[in-house]
Design a protein that fits this description.
This protein has 9 helices and 5 strands, in the order E-H-E-H-H-H-H-E-H-E-H-H-E-H. By secondary structure, it is α/β, with parallel strands linked by helices. Bound molecules: cytidine-5'-diphosphate. The site of cytidine-5'-diphosphate (CDP) has 17 residues, from helix 2, helix 4 and helix 8.
């Protein structure tokens, strides 16, 4: 079975949680495409050219330790604006999306650029304030030393870079279901997404 669920949206909107849950529920493979850009960013922060890092990315680069820091998040949205970096990561993501058995991929451009033929597209959003608070809590309840205002500034800066870049900007695919999770619990958001997927699963 070829069946792709593409989940896009801005930072900390709940994509990751929804994607993991959908994958588990329906027995689909899951790829968090943000990890690819984060891994490139981590190598770039150690001095490697971003394009070379993207071309030489290795599965061991995706182990999560150190990939979720504020510095790596900010650098990820910078390297993600480089067309050659995005190009180097396309084939792997396309192959994953269309693998046999079905796949869920979350990111920014999955339903628009990586897999426009995806059987299910979700665009998950929430207000910047709600997203900043979620991210702040995720960072251990004290923002890993950052104030809530700092986290909100980071969210705004990353939104701007992701939406304004020329290559693969963050935008909802015209055929995506938009899910604004500002006033939803994560459990409610997951249920809404799962109902949408269940209605489209073959068989
Ligand atoms: O988890 P969060 O939503 O904060 O970020 P992420 O999904 O891990 O993505 C980190 C950064 O990678 C984003 O700010 C984007 O700039 C970039 N990214 C992208 O450009 N395209 C994707 N498909 C996924 C991530």
């Amino acid at each position: 079975m070829i069946f792709t669920v593409a989940i896009d949206g801005p930072a900390a909107a709940g994509k990751g949680t929804i994607a993991r849950d959908i994958a588990r529920r329906f027995g689909l493979a899951h790829l968090d495409s943000g990890l690819l850009y984060r891994a490139v960013a981590r190598r770039a922060l150690s001095g490697e050219a971003a394009e070379a890092a993207a071309k030489g990315l290795d599965p061991s680069d995706l182990s999560e330790a150190g990939l979720r820091t504020a510095a790596v998040s900010a650098e990820a949205s910078r390297v993600a604006a480089i067309p050659a970096v995005r190009e180097a990561l396309i084939d792997f993501q396309r192959g994953f999306a269309r693998r046999d058995g079905g796949a869920v991929i979350d990111g920014r451009d999955i339903g628009t650029v990586i897999c426009p033929e995806a059987e299910v597209k979700l665009f998950v959003t929430a207000s910047a304030e709600v997203r900043a608070e979620r991210r702040w809590r995720e960072l251990g309840g004290d923002g890993a030393g950052q104030s809530l205002a700092d986290v909100l500034d980071d969210v705004h800066a990353r939104d701007r870079r992701d939406m304004e870049r020329a290559t693969s900007p963050l935008v909802a695919a015209p055929d995506a279901l938009e899910l604004d999770t500002s006033l939803m619990s994560i459990a409610e958001a997951v249920e809404a997404a799962a109902a949408h997927v269940a209605a489209r699963l073959p068989g």
